[in-house]
């Protein structure tokens, strides 16, 4: 198992946001967590990347316990987070934003190699490398946020609603990018309100409601599940 949450609970003060969550991600898999507003999807990713402390339970990555580890150590171990709303640095150029993703890495040659790799994957970022990030479109900013995460040379990518606020044709483009990244061996945890996209991309899915995991299974099965179809697919 690459990443595993065992009975993880997270609180915001007295309020329980996640209740005894167990999630497993295998090497090379795309796993999705779907759920409506406020279900706890973002909280789950923030716990995985060490930005929120767990109240109880354990998080293991590549056999190592990572809950309680500082966020930068978790990045160095190979977990990269593409946050909700992209969180790029608006006044910095595209290339400066990309380089922040590699700030922990010491091997300069490898960083330059990965930068070229990101530019190969996202030619639009290469064209706009000297442009201030805030002047980019929503889709380009999402690509930048993904590119920046790739610059840390991760084993797993945690993606928080990459489709948010984007036109359907751009959502398609992002979906293809996620598939390509995964095809090159990177595991992905995809959090989405766009359950249609998420269940198409993922091989395994979890459904979160008010901090509880209420359903899980192969994504194809959840696509056919009556409750999921009514509540999340609008069918
Ligand atoms: P969305 O899709 O709307 O982003 P989500 O599934 O990602 O929702 P979370 O953002 O994880 O949900 O929030 C889970 C619950 O925790 C919600 O009830 C939310 O109001 C609460 N919450 C989130 N952040 C905080 C915070 N900083 N302080 C207190 N409560 C919070």
TrEMBL record:
GO terms for molecular function: ATP binding; ATP hydrolysis activity; branched-chain amino acid transmembrane transporter activity. PROSITE patterns: ABC_TRANSPORTER_1 (PS00211), ABC_TRANSPORTER_2 (PS50893). The keyword DNA repair does not apply. GO terms for biological process: L-amino acid transport. Residues 3-235 form the ABC transporter domain. It comes from the Bacteria. Keywords: Amino-acid transport, ATP-binding, Nucleotide-binding, Transport. It holds the Pfam family ABC_tran. Belongs to the ABC transporter superfamily. This is Amino acid/amide ABC transporter ATP-binding protein 2, HAAT family. It comes from Pontibaca methylaminivorans. The lineage of its organism: Bacteria, Pseudomonadati, Pseudomonadota, Alphaproteobacteria, Rhodobacterales.
């Amino acid at each position: 198992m690459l990443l595993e949450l065992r009975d993880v609970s997270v609180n915001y003060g007295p309020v329980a946001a996640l209740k005894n969550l167990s999630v497993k991600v295998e090497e090379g898999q795309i796993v999705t967590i779907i759920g409506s507003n406020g279900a706890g999807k973002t909280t789950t990713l923030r716990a995985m990347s060490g930005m929120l402390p767990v109240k109880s339970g354990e998080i293991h990555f590549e056999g190592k316990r990572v809950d309680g580890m500082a966020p930068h150590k978790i990045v160095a171990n190979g977990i990269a987070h593409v946050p909700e709303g992209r969180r790029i640095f608006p006044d910095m150029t595209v290339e400066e934003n990309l380089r922040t993703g590699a700030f922990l890495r010491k091997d300069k040659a490898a960083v330059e190699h990965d930068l070229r790799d990101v530019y190969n994957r996202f030619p639009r970022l290469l064209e706009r490398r000297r442009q201030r990030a805030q002047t980019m479109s929503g889709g380009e900013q999402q690509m930048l946020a993904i590119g920046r995460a790739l610059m840390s040379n991760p084993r797993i990518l945690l993606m928080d609603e990459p489709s948010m606020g984007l036109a359907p044709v751009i959502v398609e483009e992002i979906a293809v990018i996620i598939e390509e990244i995964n095809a090159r061996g990177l595991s992905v945890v995809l959090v989405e309100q766009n359950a249609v996209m998420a269940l198409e991309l993922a091989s395994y899915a979890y459904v979160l409601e008010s901090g509880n995991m209420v359903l899980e299974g192969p994504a194809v099965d959840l696509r056919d599940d009556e409750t999921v179809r009514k509540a999340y697919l609008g069918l």
